[in-house]
Design goal:
single chain; alpha+beta; eight-stranded antiparallel beta sheet
Length: 409
């Protein structure tokens, strides 16, 4: 008989792996990267622990991703040709290894996944003022296929960040539909039914996700619409959550051929216990596509950006900070490793202040140095212009001087 257990989690050095696998009465028979464990005075074979293997997120099954994000290593524990009595020893060893790897065990015989604790942070308390990561993927309305878009999002969310999957969804409050038991099939069916046609479909998420949405070509003569996701930023302190969100951001932008996508850190929203709302003091994003009319790229940088085929060649040479990755369908720009808000990003673009020399003190007091202004993050001809600063309403935009031909009305 053969019994296999797959342990997913962080990388673990050989000494720590051997220590995690053993308890009283268990002994490692050899000292190779893949080692055999024997039991008792007679050194009876119990189980084998294979050498750790480096993996990619795509290698992790959905059953594991639902409880564990960002696994980078796989260890296989298996029982080969021994009595059924050795299986419990192997299971206990696999669970100890999972604890050492901050991971989870997948029992492929029963399809059970075991993880101690939870990888999902709790939602904020009711009335809390929170910082959020607001993601928007802008796409053309021409040829927009919401069914395909939804299927793509659900596929990528399951693989990278299951918290983004809907719990409840609909076009109006209160949201009319539950994700369970119909799941993706029921959600997609609802996209083609009245009164949802032409309206934005909203949903609530789990754990660190407050809400998400799919846009449509609701406005006449619209050339763009957006899909969105809002995440509580405190969850991104955990590198696994952070990198899972980054992977979902870039993968979805690439698959749907987004014109532009952004992930912005914003402060000041209030969590009601069910949904977010923005008091007048909250930070807001500039509306880049009001009524479906594209106004251009944002005048200030965001933590993550995606530039689609309409922009990639023109914008790429001007990205002078952060990291840039070229994809077949666009350009992915990450301003900083950790989430960065407007103030952080402004500092990245602000020239260094020259050393202060002697100051002349006269009747008018010391001469004051003028603080340097942040540099523009991209050529200004591509940037939308903020045209309204009333703090009681959302900021609006005037069109950039240069718009891609396919995005003009």
């Amino acid at each position: 008989m053969s019994y296999d257990l797959y342990v997913y989690g962080d990388e673990l050095d050989p000494a720590a792996l051997r220590a995690a696998a053993l308890v009283t009465d268990l002994v490692v028979e050899d000292d190779s990267p893949s080692f055999t464990v024997v039991r008792g005075a007679r050194r009876r074979y119990s189980f084998t622990v294979e050498q750790p293997e480096r993996i990619e997120p795509e290698d992790v099954p959905e059953e594991v991703t639902t409880v564990l994000l960002g696994a980078t290593s796989l260890v296989v524990v298996h029982v080969e040709g021994s009595a059924d009595s050795e299986v419990p020893h192997a299971i206990r060893a696999a669970r100890r290894i999972a604890m050492a790897m901050r991971g989870a065990v997948h029992d492929v015989q029963t399809d059970e996944v075991h993880r101690r604790g939870t990888s999902r942070p709790a939602k904020p308390s009711r009335g809390a003022i929170v910082t959020t990561l607001n993601i928007n993927w802008w796409v053309r309305t021409g040829g927009l296929d919401l069914t395909s878009t939804a299927e793509t999002f659900f596929e990528l969310a399951r693989r990278h960040f299951p918290d983004a999957l809907p719990r409840r969804y609909g076009t109006t409050e209160p949201l009319q539909h539950r994700w369970e038991p119909g799941g993706a099939e029921a959600f997609i069916t609802s996209l083609n039914e009245e009164p949802m046609v032409g309206a934005r479909t909203w949903w609530t998420g789990s754990g660190s996700v407050a809400d998400g949405s799919l846009g449509s070509s609701f406005w006449e003569d619209a050339v763009v619409t957006s899909h969105s996701l809002t995440i509580f930023a405190n969850a991104l302190d955990d590198v696994r959550h952070r990198e899972s969100v980054v992977r979902l951001f870039a993968a979805f932008a690439s698959r749907i051929d987004a014109v532009y996508a952004s992930a912005s850190v914003l402060h000041g929203a209030e969590w009601s216990g069910r949904q977010l709302w923005s008091p007048t003091s909250a930070e807001r994003e500039l509306g880049l596509g009001p009524r479906g009319i594209w106004k251009g790229l944002p005048p200030t940088p965001t933590w993550l950006s995606w530039f689609g085929t309409d922009y990639a060649d023109e914008i790429g040479p001007h990205l002078s900070f952060g990291s840039v990755q070229r994809h077949d369908s666009g350009l992915f720009h990450r301003s900083a490793i950790e989430p960065a808000d407007r103030a952080d990003l402004a500092r990245l673009l602000t020239p260094a202040t020259p050393p202060v020399g002697r100051r002349w003190f006269g009747l008018r007091g010391p001469r004051q140095r003028r603080a340097p202004e942040p540099e523009s993050w991209l050529p200004i001809e591509y940037l939308a212009v903020t045209s309204q600063s009333d703090p009681t309403t959302y900021p609006t935009a005037e069109s950039a001087p240069v718009l891609p031909r396919m995005l003009r009305t």
